[in-house]
Amino acid sequence: MIDLSSLVQPDLGQQARTIHLVDKAGLADWLKAAPPRVRNHLAAMRFSARAHEMLVVPGDQADDWAVVLGVADASSLKPWCLAKVAELLATGTYRLANDARPGDAQIGWALAQHRFTAYKKVEENPQGPRVLLTNDPAHMDAALAEAEATAWVRDLVNTPAEDMGPAALEEAAAELARTYGGLLDVTRGDALETHYPMIHAVGRAAGRSHAPRLIELHWGRDDHPRVAIVGKGVCFDSGGLDIKPASGMLLMKKDMGGAAHALALAQLIMRLKLPVRLHLLVGAVENAISGNAFRPGDVLRSRKGITVEIGNTDAEGRLVLGDCLAKASEAMPDMILDFATLTGAARVAVGPDLPALFSNSDPLADGLLSSGTMVGDPCWRLPLWAGYEDMYASDIADIGNTGGAFAGAITAALFLQRFVGEGLPWAHFDTYAWRPTPRPGQPKGGEAMGLRASWHYLRSRYSPDPA
């Protein structure tokens, strides 16, 4: 795989070809200032400055050429506006015309050249990658960190379940701890059954090779605000005894997408030294089938003491998250963010592009939404409608784990809210973590959705003047 850090470099006057950015509003003025041969070439090719529209134009010398690229707004570059040219251009070095700063577009430039090749032989391009020069090296480091975190989510989600089980998630967290000086704490076996009974119940059928566990990572100074990041790590979901059809299992390697987001957000926090006390929690399980699988009709006790009647073993992610959220709440953090590929109902509601966002705090939700809009990582808020709480009522337990035929994403979020400590600001991302069709810089497969929105919100809240 390409080293993304090599794809954006400081502009030290290196020889490079030029990329001219033109939007529809500025096209007429740009054409007036262009040499006649360029103007005629663009007219002949009917160049209209649509987003991602690219033309190569001749320069003054025989071997000289430049690129004219259409963008939505030349004065405010979005993350993916350079992605398509980064995919299509010849290998070499490029800079933006008129000393334009690439800003967040560096993220799309780098990610456009990232590929998941762990299981497929790919011939390397002998000429090397496409390199973008930037006159804003301070922003370069932060942009590349975001690109690499996004690529890590993609790689984790794309990896098949046999190689991305609970032990692999534990090793990913352990590597973070080693790299950034964090403290790793993993609970398994009898201790897991005692202290996190719902996590244990969901994962016990997978056996010793894929044994369930709670993975915790602590990092940062004790006097900094505590932030808890929680991820659903269901490494494969057969549905349990309420087994999914074969078609429903095809993408279930991605059911640990919430854990991938949580790990990547933790990496950003530690790598860029956000002044918080980080508490990362990942419930890592495989929802399998065997003689000791949990059953429909069982009643599980939770870490919080709430009893849960199982209406469907395929509604297992909320059980794993329930114990994680209860544990996270005990330390009274400043906020809790959780990520999960939780419900198909969220995809019906908002489609594959948008993570559904739920929160018990309007300021927290507003901050996440505005940050997502600002950085091109949009989210959509759905309501925690208390009127639906009776949908997951149980005759023999405190609550059930299913909410009936309606409002599945909302009732799942309401279930999770029961395990959040009273008065603690909490936000829940029900994310798809998968892109079904490719776009520039965003190939089909695992995808980070809500990651950059969360990171920018945390950075603006806890480090408003980042270095």
TrEMBL record:
Domain Cytosol aminopeptidase: start-end pairs: 312-319
| UniProt GO cellular component terms | cytoplasm
Any one Gene Ontology molecular-function term assigned to this protein's record: manganese ion binding
Source domain of life: Bacteria
Tell me if DNA repair is a UniProt keyword of this record: no
> Pfam family of this protein, just one?
Peptidase_M17
* Claim: Manganese is one of the keywords in the record: yes
Stored SUPFAM superfamilies: Zn-dependent exopeptidases
Instruction: Spell out the InterPro entries in the cross-references.
Output: Leucine_aapep/pepB, Macro_dom-like, Peptidase_M17_C, Peptidase_M17_N_1
Could you tell me the keywords of this UniProt record?
A: Aminopeptidase, Hydrolase, Manganese, Protease
Assigned protein family: Belongs to the peptidase M17 family.
Q: What is this protein called?
A: Leucyl aminopeptidase
Q: Which organism is it from?
A: Blastomonas natatoria
